[in-house]
Amino acid sequence: MSDSAVPKAEPESELRRSITGRLLFFYVLGDVLGSGIYVLIGAVAGEVGGAFWAAFAVGVTVAAFTGLAYAELATKYPRAAGASLYVNKAFGSRALTFLTTVLYLSATFAAAGSLAAGFARYFGQIWSLPPALLIMIVFIILLAIVNYVGITESVVINMAMTIVEVTGLVIVLLIGAIYVGQGKADFTVLTNFSSGDNVVFAIIAGVALAFFAMTGFENAANVAEETIDPSRNFPRALIGGMAAAGVIYVLVSMSAALVVPVDTLASSDAALLEVIRAGILPISVSVMVLVFAIIAMVAITNTTLVQVVTQSRILYGMAREDVVPAAFAKVHPTRRSPVVALVFSAVVVIALLVAGDLLNRIGLQVDIVERLAAVTVVLLLVVYAGVIVACLKLRGSDETSDTFRAPTALLLVGLVGNVVLLYYVISTDPGSLIWCAGLVAVGFVLFVAELALGKRDRPAGVRRGEPIDGKKDH
Questions:
Q1: CA atoms within a 13 Å half-sphere pointing along the CA-CB vector of 413
Q2: CA separation for the pair 413, 423 (Å, rounded)
Q3: Structural domain boundaries of the chain?
Q4: Residue 374 contacts by C-beta under 8 Å, 6 or more apart in sequence?
Q5: How far apart are CA 242 and CA 235, in angstroms?
Q6: Which of 137, 182, 417, 450 has its CA 20 to 30 Å from the CA of residue 143?
Q7: How far from the centroid of its chain's Cα atoms is residue 430's Cα?
Q8: In CATH, what class is 21-453?
Q9: How far apart, in whole angstroms, are the C-alpha atoms of residue 331 and residue 408?
Q10: CA–CA distance, 209 with 381 (Å, rounded to integer)
């Protein structure tokens, strides 16, 4: 690969540049401000103590430094594909590019499983009749059906649910503000760490979980191709959106710690519901608990829907490039949805949930929410570290006067942060590696299947880059 500073000509985009800097900011904010805090805030509180807000602050900082690498690379290569494109540009290795893609795909599988389990927990706080596993399976199937109906419907639903999701966090902030205004808050709790733990290790333990809530900004790189003046708008929107989300996470964490004893948060399956149960608002507690549980389930559904969309599109794109069997490029003749990819993705996520349930039934206790969150974090930390290395390696290549250049020192701090978190998660939860290996193995099985089948599974006349039915995908 040439190190020349003269930028190479990129293929002209067929996508319309219509996303302004302000729209992109809210896109990033909504993406990062996902449902992780609804699902894992109690676990983070249990790891750190009353100062668990610090874990979210450190987590978003490490994520933001990684975001700087994405910002630089997106201004160089404003095209959909994200990490896989950047790794391919830096190293020119098909195997490494494929591995990056599979790691990210596997992370979306694990994230969807963790979120489905979190959904079942909130559901169980209100209605306790169906078994949790059944709730999770039905949840994943319904989201696959929504995506099957069409991507337009999925996006519209996603926008509506984002508003509901943010409303839930605003309610928590309002409760915290009222509690402080009543003079009841004990601010010393915000500096308390878990007894007997080294402060640094306590924060790292919390960040390892809190990082799950910071993921999602990778999706922003996929719309750089549709952003107006990406060199100017993309870095501002990406870092600004992540910073705003971080501030909200920290304030929500502080509100929860001030209103509810940390032990109560840590032991709850739905920690933010405990804030509602404190009865600070002048509304019936039972009514608010029901309303907030529904809000939390909507928030979790929102983020999981994004994961389901991403999974099917990655498989679809890989099939069009002859990396996995061509069946995954098959789209429904009228709905234009990648139906085979959707079904396969749902099966993989359900298999993860069933595996967790079976392990619990035979006595090998597994917290499926935390385990799959850890698996997601491990896989994404590897991808993020690879993006930072790719960013540093591509310095001096394909640059113009408009190219955003991230501070090298911050990139190195981000790289170290990713590696430290990766080491911590693996050393404290080595079982997560088995789950990671299983997910990555699924991707390699598909790759081997494509090598074995060759062109036999691709009908004559269907070329690389086309859907399997030969029609253009709009």
A1: 14
A2: 15
A3: 21-453
A4: 208, 209, 425, 429, 432
A5: 11
A6: 450
A7: 21
A8: mainly alpha
A9: 43
A10: 12
- Report the distance separating Cα 186 and Cα 234, nearest Å: 41
The tokens for 182 are 């009543």
What DSSP designation does 19 have?
A: B
> Count of alpha carbons within 13 Å of 293, Cβ hemisphere only?
18
Per the listing, tokens 């549980």 go with 293
Alpha helices in 225-338 (DSSP H): 230-259, 262-267, 271-277, 285-320
- Angstrom distance (rounded) from CA 312 to CA 342: 5
The proportion of the chain whose per-residue pLDDT surpasses 70, expressed as a percent, equals 86
Sequence-ordered list of residues with C-beta below 8 angstroms from that of 57, at least 6 positions apart, any chain: 246, 249, 250
**How many other C-beta atoms are found inside a 10 Å radius of the C-beta of residue 131?**
12
In angstroms, the CA 455 to CA 428 distance is: 44
The pair of structure tokens assigned to 80 is: 């959909």
SS3 content of the chain, % helix, strand, coil (to 5): 75, 0, 25
Q: Max alpha carbon distance in the chain (Å)?
A: 74
Q: Are 153 and 253 in contact (CB under 8 A)?
A: no
Give the best-scoring range by mean pLDDT among 37-41, 383-387, 451-455: 383-387
Q: Residue 360: is it exposed, middle or buried by C-beta count within 10 angstroms (0-12/13-18/19+)?
A: middle
pLDDT in tens, 191-249: 988 866 678 888 888 888 888 887 777 777 766 666 777 777 888 888 888 888 889 99
Contacts of 283 (CB under 8 A, 6+ apart): none
- The confidence band for 335, taking pLDDT boundaries of 50, 70 and 90, is low
- AA identity, residue 434: I
Q: Concatenate the DSSP letters of all residues of 334-358 into one string.
A: TT---HHHHHHHHHHHHHHHHHHHH
Residues 34 and 264: their CA atoms lie apart, in Å, by 23
Backbone angles phi, psi at 227, to 5 degrees: -95, 135
Single pTM value for the model: 0.84
Place of tokens 């710690």: 257
Amino acid residing at 185: A
Per-residue burial over 48-87, b = 16 or more CB atoms within 10 Å of its CB, e = otherwise: bbbbbbbbbbbbbbbbbbbbbbbbbbbbbbbbbbbbbbbb
- Confidence category of residue 452, pLDDT binned at 50, 70, 90: confident
Instruction: Answer positive or negative: Cα dihedral of 407, 413, 417, 419.
Output: positive
Task: Of 374, 358, 379, give the one whose Cα is nearest residue 442.
Answer: 379
pLDDT of residue 325: 83
Q: Which residues contact 146 (CB under 8 A, 6 or more apart)?
A: 153, 154, 157, 305
Q: Are 142 and 134 within 8 A, CB to CB?
A: no
